[in-house]
């Protein structure tokens, strides 16, 4: 909203801080996990078209909350049906055949079923398309009498699983060989590893372990995997090029945002002042102190050193267990964002209860003043709170728009005279 309101990243400190944090996080994701954002991509659950309407090569996708409507047939204000050519892949995708180009179609019958955020595959045609979703029948034939040594069976299953769980080793070997082999993922070794990977995924259900031969184990690792304790080589593939480009970009962008009195003097926006805002400065200071106290508690709890870390959930100094476990880090990030959102909602209640509706512009302007004005800068503060006034961003942008409009009217009047 700040960009739409006319602010430039190099002029507004809070906007600059947040964009730098997101940029740093995206570079970290590219460097560590090669995660590339796909704007028109979705992660969906594969299901079978039980009605039998879809033909071979067709799929049906109805999505919630889709931004770009140019690729969708709009159903209502919340849902749309995807139409046209689509690329569908399994997750994870190891075998070249796991990537397919299919045709997304619209069907009134399927629309009435109310299936959202999943992809329907047809019953018809060869097995290759229907294997994009997995269906395993689980027959159970009850016996009249049977006995199971429950503790012993559990112990045996746990030990067997720990000994024969090779899924991680197979995935790593496939990543290395897909980068190292001339034929990449189409090489015979990668195809064999893809088959072993499928067996390893189903090992907990089938009990059939996937044993990886020694000749498939990598002896050298690409530089983008950062296995410094192992022999390494410079990868010439796309992942290696992306990794090194990310390192160079991180080195150029590795400048931490610093809030200072000089920055405050240059950034303070007079367009956000309204008549009578000074009457609300004591109340604004009290609200700011409460916000800083609660924000500092959140930062200390999650070991965040800067405000942008707690506002975006992108921690720079993650604990060791979070560095190893992406799922747990994702859960921690979600908790941070929920806690931050709750704090902002609480602060908005202070704002709404602290004045009448007619006085909200004055209080919003006072919030901005006690946060951004150089007179309120405290040397040596450990916690900035630039996010504080932007909790009421709608009110502040309304003030700026009205002041700009008045200024243009005054300029036109002066020119006419």
TrEMBL record:
Residue ranges constituting the RDRP core domain according to the UniProt record: 2-131, 148-245
Similarity comment text for this entry: Belongs to the RdRP family.
Enzyme class: transferase
Protein's UniProt keywords contain Cytoplasm: no
Catalytic activity as recorded in UniProt: RNA(n) + a ribonucleoside 5'-triphosphate = RNA(n+1) + diphosphate
EC number, UniProt record: 2.7.7.48
Keywords of this entry: Nucleotidyltransferase, RNA-binding, RNA-directed RNA polymerase, RNA-mediated gene silencing, Transferase
Gene Ontology MF annotations: RNA binding; RNA-directed RNA polymerase activity
The protein's name: RNA-dependent RNA polymerase
Cellular component aspect of the GO annotation: nuclear RNA-directed RNA polymerase complex
Function: Probably involved in the RNA silencing pathway and required for the generation of small interfering RNAs (siRNAs).
GO-annotated biological processes: siRNA processing
RDRP C-terminal head domain residues: 267-411
Organism: Linum tenue
């Amino acid at each position: 909203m700040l960009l739409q309101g006319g602010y430039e990243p190099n002029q507004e400190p809070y906007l600059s801080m947040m964009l730098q944090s997101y940029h740093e996080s995206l570079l970290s994701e590219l460097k560590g996990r090669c995660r590339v954002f796909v704007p028109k991509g979705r992660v969906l659950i594969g299901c079978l078209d039980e009605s039998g309407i879809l033909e071979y090569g067709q799929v049906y996708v109805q999505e919630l909350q889709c931004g770009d409507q140019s690729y969708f047939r709009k159903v209502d204000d919340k849902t749309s049906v995807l139409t046209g050519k689509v690329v569908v892949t399994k997750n994870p995708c190891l075998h070249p055949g796991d990537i397919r180009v299919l045709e997304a179609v619209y069907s009134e019958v399927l629309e009435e079923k109310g299936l959202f955020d999943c992809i329907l595959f047809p019953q018809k045609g060869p097995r290759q398309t229907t294997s994009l979703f997995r269906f395993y029948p689980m027959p159970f034939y009850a016996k009249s009498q049977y006995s199971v040594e429950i503790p012993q069976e559990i112990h045996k299953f746990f030990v067997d699983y720990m000994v024969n769980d090779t899924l991680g080793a197979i995935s790593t070997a496939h990543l290395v060989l897909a980068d190292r082999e001339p034929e990449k993922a189409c090489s015979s070794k990668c195809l064999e590893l893809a088959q072993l990977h499928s067996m390893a995924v189903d090992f907990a259900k089938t009990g059939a372990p996937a044993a990886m031969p020694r000749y498939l184990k990598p002896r050298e690792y690409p530089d983008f995997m950062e296995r410094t304790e192992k022999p390494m080589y410079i990868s010439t593939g796309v992942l290696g090029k992306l990794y090194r480009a990310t390192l160079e970009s991180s080195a150029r962008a590795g400048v931490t945002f610093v809030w200072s009195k000089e920055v405050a003097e240059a950034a303070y926006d007079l367009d956000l002042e309204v008549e009578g805002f000074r009457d609300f400065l004591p109340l604004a200071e009290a609200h700011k102190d409460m916000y800083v106290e609660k924000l500092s508690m959140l930062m200390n709890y999650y070991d965040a050193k800067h405000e942008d870390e707690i506002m975006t959930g992108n921690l720079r100094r993650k604990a060791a267990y979070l560095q190893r476990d992406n799922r747990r880090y994702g859960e921690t990030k979600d908790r941070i964002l929920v806690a931050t959102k709750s704090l902002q909602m609480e602060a908005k209640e202070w704002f709404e209860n602290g004045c009448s509706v007619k006085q909200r512009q004055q209080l919003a302007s006072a919030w901005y003043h006690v946060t951004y004005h150089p007179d309120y800068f405290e040397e040596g503060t450990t916690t900035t709170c630039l996010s504080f006034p932007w909790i009421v961003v709608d009110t502040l942008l309304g003030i700026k728009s009205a002041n700009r409009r008045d200024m243009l009217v005054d300029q036109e009047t002066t020119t006419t005279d």
